[in-house]
Amino acid sequence: MAGFNGMGRVLRLSALVLGLLAPGLAKAAPARMGSAPVDPKLVDEMAVDLARYAEEVRGFRKAATSIIQRTYVEKIKGIHDKYEPQISLNEKEEKQRRMDAIAVLE
């Protein structure tokens, strides 16, 4: 399903690019009666470039996500390492107090 969604984005982006460039291409063509249509090779080149761009975007997002996840894990580990000794000490004290309270009540 994720691949389909990515293809939909590429198609939407393709339509947007073609929609934005088509008027410029039409203006660049000589103004004559029955002017020549847009060169299909140019459109194909643009489609290939667009697909390559979309692939680069996916690669960039994957790399960025990987970096963010690794940084997150490192920060969580740092926080854990910082506070775990105090948490363990508090849990030991709590357990000892509980044992002392049980001993007093018996």
Tell me how many strands there are.
0
SSE string: HH
Coarse morphology = rod-shaped
Structural category is mainly alpha
Q: Note the gap between the termini.
A: 64 Å
Low-confidence stretches: none
Largest sheet: none
Structure write-up:
The protein is mainly α. It has one domain. α1 packs antiparallel against α2.
Sum this structure up briefly:
88% of the residues lie in helices and 0% in strands. With 106 residues, it is mostly helical.
For the structure shown, list the relevant keywords.
106 residues, single chain, rod-shaped, 2 helices
Q: Mind sketching the topology for me?
A:
Blueprint: H1 2-28, H2 40-105
Helix pairs in contact: 1-2
